[in-house]
Write a structure and sequence with these properties.
The structure holds 2 protein chains of 2 kinds.
Chain A: E1 5-6, E2 13-17, H1 46-57, E3 63-67, H2 77-84, E4 90-94, H3 101-113, E5 118-123, H4 129-136, H5 140-153, E6 159-163, H6 171-184, E7 191-195, H7 203-206, E8 234-238, E9 241-243, E10 255-257, E11 267-268, H8 272-280
Helix pairs in contact in A: 1-2
Chain B: E1 2-7, H1 14-26, E2 31-34, H2 48-54, E3 58-59, H3 63-70, H4 82-97, H5 101-108, E4 114-118, E5 121-125, H6 144-154, E6 158-161, E7 168-172, E8 176-180, E9 195-202, E10 238-245, H7 249-258, H8 263-271, H9 283-287
Parallel strand pairs in B: 1-2, 2-3, 5-6, 6-8
Antiparallel strand pairs in B: 1-9, 4-5, 7-8, 9-10
Helix pairs in contact in B: 3-5, 7-8
Classes of the chains: A alpha/beta, B alpha/beta.
């Protein structure tokens, strides 16, 4: 069977798996099963990030994203964001539970000194503890909201990232519920991004994995706008090298090389999670960067 | 002196367009350009087109123009916030229904980009970005490295765009520039009711020309010699000015109400704060607004 190949049209977004698979939480839907005990992927230090930032300039990278695990478990996280804001806009995906005031003060100074935005995407999987805590862990709803309030106190406008963990839930209701919750917590300009689940990693146990037939075929790519696929515009740096996208790092063939220059080749989107990316499009980037023909 | 005026996003605001045209003529511009999105948001779409023709405004096709021109189902704005999509639908349905067939055909046939010469500068005029009509290039989410890549790929010295609704200008190495000219259609989310456009001028008269031969940039002549490449040793000869346009916004608000357009849009015209389509704003730009 002919495999659909997706070329990298331009390296718009460079991702960093900055905390590896190490996380203080053990969310039941995590697509790479991050936890306090998962050391499959390790931290990236400041020098490594700097090397890739320097390499990225020649490729005209537009934005930088940081994820884990929990990025703020990396002791270099604040210096990494400070450095990145000299190169371009930075977005950090965090669970919001381990912020420290002195870190946020430094990051406020760094964003003010930069022409670029520093975005915090904070994961919260329900607008009540009853919805969120079974997925992200007991007590996390309150801890995450405390983190959101800390960000607000330091002048940040976090984007609440919500995974659609209950299939039957209407997006409009979910959206409205979050707006209400955030306003009650003093967030006058609530920002929300709703995401589908990726049926790999821990999510396979929580709900289900992909079924037969949930794969992208060559026919499905006919007339499809490839710019919606993360692999057409992104690459992901981990402590093992450069991978095709933030979702597939545990898939052996997704590691494309040691440097960005080695990782520019087209990628066969034969993996089950590629189906979700194909289905929804623009999964990983911020709304300010989407180019979706609705 | 060669001088051009560049407008963006009219969004049916024919009153602001009239004011901007008068202002540009007062400044003695040699050519007027519009980077697209003639429709959306405001009242009476068909009042925009006679002004564009009468003043020989050279236009680029925006995503809205592409949708209206080709009879597409929506404006290709691509919001994910259900509330934003609701307002985008209302606005598109109204604009489409009130744009005559002849004007829709005119929109359909507009070019996606124009290349012109201004002094020694090669200019590329587009709507969102040169690579994609509906790409947002915000000041706070567009790296220098990315702009360098665009300028290099498209082999130009200056790129002009609109689409985001907020003006900005960044000068890059070797006297190259990216300029978002702002929009005439609605205020900038800064608690002022005026709107904005850009005037670009160069002092180097002899080499100014318009490659397309449209609206000759008086007193400029067609280029008969290769323009000198920009040099890091020389100061920039390109002057970029953002011009505030004050217009009868209360009249616009009254007409919008009479056309039963959403009160959220009317409030934006009257207060200068954006009330809808906020989801696409990056952190820095969002923080400057009220909602």
């Amino acid at each position: 069977m002919e495999l659909p190949m997706v070329p990298l049209s331009h390296l718009d977004d460079l991702w960093f798996q900055v905390a590896g698979t190490f996380c203080n939480l053990t969310c039941t839907h995590c697509f790479i099963s991050c936890s306090p005990h998962n050391h499959n992927f390790g931290f990236l230090d400041l020098a490594t990030v700097r090397r890739y930032l320097d390499e990225s300039v020649a490729f005209g990278v537009k934005e930088y994203y940081f994820t884990g695990g929990e990025p703020f478990l990396n002791r270099d996280m604040v210096p990494i964001l400070e450095l990145t804001l000299q190169y371009g806009p930075a977005t950090v995906l965090t669970n919001g539970t381990i912020f420290r005031t002195d870190w946020l003060k430094r990051l406020r100074v760094a964003e003010d000194a930069s022409p670029y935005s520093l975005e915090f995407r904070v994961s919260l999987d329900g607008f009540t503890a009853a919805q969120n805590d079974p997925v992200r862990g007991d007590g996390t709803f309150e801890r995450i909201l405390a983190g959101v309030r800390m960000l607000l106190d330091h002048g940040f406008l976090p984007i609440l990232t919500v995974t659609r963990t209950q299939d039957e839930q209407d997006d409009g209701d979910l959206f409205d519920g979050f707006v209400r919750l955030l306003k009650e917590n003093g967030y006058a300009q609530p920002r929300i991004k709703i995401l589908p689940t990726l049926r790999i990693g821990a999510e396979v146990q929580r709900q289900r994995g992909y079924q037969e037939g949930e794969r992208v075929t060559a026919e499905m790519m006919d007339g499809y706008d490839q710019s919606q696929l993360v692999c057409s515009k992104s690459r992901m740096v981990t402590d093992r090298g450069v991978h095709v996208c933030p979702i597939l790092i545990e898939t052996p063939d997704a590691r494309l090389g040691a440097t960005l220059a080695e990782a520019l080749q087209p990628f066969a989107i034969k993996h089950s999670a590629c189906y979700t990316c194909w289905q929804y499009g623009a999964l990983c980037s911020n709304a300010s960067s989407q180019q979706r023909d609705a | 002196m060669a001088r051009i005026a560049v407008f963006g996003g009219i969004y049916n605001n024919y009153l602001a367009l009239e004011a901007a045209l008068a202002d540009a003529h007062r400044r003695g511009v040699d050519g007027i350009y519009c980077l697209g999105d003639m429709g959306a948001f405001g009242p009476h779409p068909d009042r925009v087109f006679p002004l564009l023709r009468e003043h020989n405004v050279m236009c680029i096709q925006g995503n809205y123009d592409n949708s209206v021109g080709n009879g597409l189902a929506d404006c290709q704005c691509g919001y994910t916030d259900p509330r934003d999509n609701h307002f985008a639908r209302l606005s598109y349905t109204y604009t489409f229904a009130n744009t005559t067939l002849a004007n829709r055909e005119w929109l359909r046939d507009l070019p996606a980009e124009r290349r012109i010469q201004l002094g020694r500068y090669r200019l590329l005029l587009c709507h969102g970005s040169p690579r994609r009509t509906n790409e947002f290039l915000w000041e706070s989410t567009t790296s220098v490295a990315f702009l360098e890549h665009l300028l290099q790929s498209f082999q130009v010295d200056v790129i002009l765009g609109t689409h985001t609704g907020i003006k900005w200008h960044r000068q890059l190495a070797n006297d190259r520039h990216f300029i978002n000219v702002g929009v005439l259609g609605r205020p900038e989310n800064d608690c002022t009711t005026n709107v904005w456009y850009a005037v670009l001028s160069v002092a180097d008269v002899q080499q100014s020309s318009n490659r397309e031969g449209e609206a000759p940039a008086e007193p400029a002549q067609p280029a008969r010699q290769e323009p000198r490449p920009p040099s890091p040793d020389r100061p920039s000869e390109l002057r970029v000015e953002f011009i505030p346009v004050h217009y009868d916004h209360e009249r616009l608000a009254t007409e919008m109400r009479a056309e039963r357009l959403p009160d959220e849009f009317v409030q934006t015209v009257l207060t200068g704060w954006w009330t809808t389509c906020l989801e696409v704003l990056p952190a820095k730009e969002r923080r400057r607004g009220h909602y």
